[in-house]
Amino acid sequence: MAMRQTPLTCSGHTRPVVDLAFSGITPYGYFLISACKDGKPMLRQGDTGDWIGTFLGHKGAVWGATLNKDATKAATAAADFTAKVWDAVTGDELMTLAHKHIVKTVDFTQDSNYLLTGGQDKLLRIYDLNKPEAEPKEISGHTSGIKKALWCSEDKQILSADDKTVRLWDHATMTEVKSVNFNMSVSSMEYIPEGEVLVLTYGRTIAFHSAVSLEPIKSFEAPATINSASLHPEKEFLVAGGEDFKLYKYDYNSGEELESYKGHFGPIHCVRFSPDGELYASGSEDGTLRLWQTVVGKTYGLWKCVLPEEDSGELAKPKGGFQETAEEELEEIASENSDSIYSSTPEVKA
């Protein structure tokens, strides 16, 4: 019997989902944060998609969101010319970092003491979160708005991408080490610490570069324009999504297309593997996040593997008996736990 991929659909946002990030694995599991043009970033349990809370305070579209390693802090970048740092346990806003233009990207150092930001004013800023009143360090050199900025090499270096250029910076000297130009707009960038791999997408290309030298490693061509790609933690697979509403899964070594799935009702803007590699999450123009199994048919999270003799239906259906989404279960969980989540009313739509 062929096994069917049944994604879990996480509703609640009212506008396109443009960024998402997972925390590391904590004693309480791992967590997922999403950035949306509705200005209300959301925190969820990473393995199930269960809604935990909504960070309320931005006055414009949120373009970037991230969690620190142990999921105790969150950071968001928004069109209201601010980046905000949040207590991810209570949902409280800890600080607002004013900028001179739209902020697109945020990233914590491994010790959570510093926050890196970038945006439309073409400057990288480094904030000391232990000294919120201090002016940030600034790094100039980009010639167009910064789309993504990430710490790398144990926070000794910084990777940043603007429209068609990726740059590597030295943190200590605040100077550029190297840059690479592309003939198309870079749509996404992911940094893999294990092996120092940089995953880039531009046009229909998914490219892998050394994060140390920026030298190319390999690249694959997809059937459609790709907006985001993510490499499996064990570097076995990669997933990508873009303008044709589909998610593609490739063998990292051979480049062979293994699977493709259509579940979203709009272009896919972001995709990331979970820290344990068991699932990947996608965010779309349709306002939803979807969680997909890496190995279809495995019992994990809300998915339960039902053997043929036990049930004549599909394998690996989400628990709860629904076919396509986890919306009803998310609503039920949000309702049951409404006293322990930060927003007074669940942000999950029917």
Describe the overall structure.
This protein is mostly beta strands. It contains 1 helix and 30 strands. A hairpin with a 5-residue loop joins strand 3 and strand 4 (about 40-45).
Q: How many strands appear in the DSSP assignment?
A: 30
Mean residue pLDDT: 89
**Global geometry:** globular
Largest sheet: 4 strands, antiparallel
Helix fraction bin? under 10%
Tell me the layout of helices and strands:
Layout: E1 8-10, E2 17-22, E3 31-36, E4 42-45, E5 51-54, E6 62-67, E7 73-78, E8 82-87, E9 93-98, E10 103-108, E11 114-119, E12 124-128, E13 137-139, E14 148-152, E15 157-161, E16 165-170, E17 175-181, E18 186-192, E19 197-202, E20 205-210, E21 216-221, E22 226-231, E23 237-242, E24 246-251, E25 257-262, E26 268-273, E27 279-284, E28 289-293, E29 303-304, E30 317-318, H1 327-336
Antiparallel strand pairs: 1-28, 2-3, 3-4, 4-5, 6-7, 7-8, 8-9, 10-11, 11-12, 12-13, 14-15, 15-16, 16-17, 18-19, 19-20, 20-21, 22-23, 23-24, 24-25, 26-27, 27-28, 29-30
